[in-house]
């Protein structure tokens, strides 16, 4: 009575599984696009942070400080030659020594930060080149993905028509029960096979009367343990 409908159901399940593979392919293509778009966004954010980091090195400010101290040093050197007392000479020498040390410290900082700046600017340039080059790659990927996705959707749509046709050929009681359990167990399957006298989903053994009625196609049976619609092996087409 139900064996033919079970055969239709088996084909429906197979077609749905194939459609899921196509949907996975569509998701993969969309991920290719989103991954590159996300990377481009991260590049823009990284470059903004790098520019702030480079600006905070204050190279020009440090250079101006060194130049200002150099002018003060020259002025003090001139004043030293005009000192009239030992106290004045000592005072000028101490100031000169302090300024020379300050210049040395600033120069050390300047050259360390200059090296950091060069590294940062190189990274910024590399990011800008990637961002520019990836724009073309992104458009190519989008065009390629659109073609693949359209093809996959067409295949899915054709299978859905076949699924609808098979569903209409199933006996109403089986169809309604299947749809009810399919919704209940979603996204998992609401069906299982009775294989070696056991439910293929939970592996609980079915009693003899249930097995006999199901395998002969005389009734619809639900696994007493997991609640899935049982499909008999006798419905399989080998």
Task: Walk me through this protein's architecture.
- With 238 residues, the chain is mainly α.
- The chain has helices at residues 3-55, 59-81, 86-169, 172-185, 208-215; strands spanning 191-195, 198-199, 229-232.
- A three-stranded mixed sheet has the order 2-1-3, with helices on both faces.
- It is rod-shaped and about 125 Å long.
- The two termini are 20 Å apart.
Largest sheet geometry: 3 strands, mixed
What's the helical proportion of residues? over 70%
Question: Secondary-structure element order, as H and E?
Answer: HHHHEEHE
By DSSP (H or I, 4+ residues per run), the number of helices equals 5
Number of strands: 3
Residue-averaged pLDDT:
94
How far the N terminus sits from the C terminus, by CA atoms, comes to 20 Å
Radius of gyration: 39 Å
What structural class do you assign from the helix and strand content? mainly alpha
Shape: rod-shaped
Q: Strand order within the widest sheet? A: 2-1-3
Poorly predicted runs? none
Beta percentage is: under 5%
């Amino acid at each position: 009575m139900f064996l033919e409908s079970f055969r239709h159901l088996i084909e429906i399940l197979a077609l749905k599984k194939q459609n899921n593979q196509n949907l996975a392919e569509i998701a993969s293509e969309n991920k290719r696009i989103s991954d590159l778009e996300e990377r481009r966004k991260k590049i823009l954010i990284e470059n903004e942070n790098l520019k702030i980091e480079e600006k905070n090195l204050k190279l020009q400010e440090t250079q101006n400080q060194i130049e200002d101290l150099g002018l003060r040093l020259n002025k003090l050197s001139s004043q030293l030659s005009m000192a009239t007392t030992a106290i004045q000479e000592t005072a000028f020498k101490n100031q000169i020594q302090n300024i020379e040390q300050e210049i040395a410290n600033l120069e050390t900082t300047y050259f360390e930060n200059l090296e950091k700046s060069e590294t940062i600017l190189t990274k910024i340039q590399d990011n800008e080149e990637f961002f520019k080059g990836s724009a073309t790659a992104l458009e190519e990927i989008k065009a390629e993905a659109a073609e693949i996705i359209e093809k996959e959707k067409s295949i899915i749509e054709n299978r859905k028509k076949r699924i609808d046709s098979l569903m209409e050929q199933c006996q109403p009681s089986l169809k309604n029960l299947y749809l009810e359990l399919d919704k209940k167990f979603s996204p998992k399957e609401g069906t299982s096979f009775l294989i070696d006298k056991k439910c293929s989903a939970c592996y609980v053994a079915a009693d003899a009367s249930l097995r006999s009625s199901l395998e002969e196609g005389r009734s619809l049976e639900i696994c007493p343990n997991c609640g899935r619609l049982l499909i008999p092996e006798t419905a399989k087409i080998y």
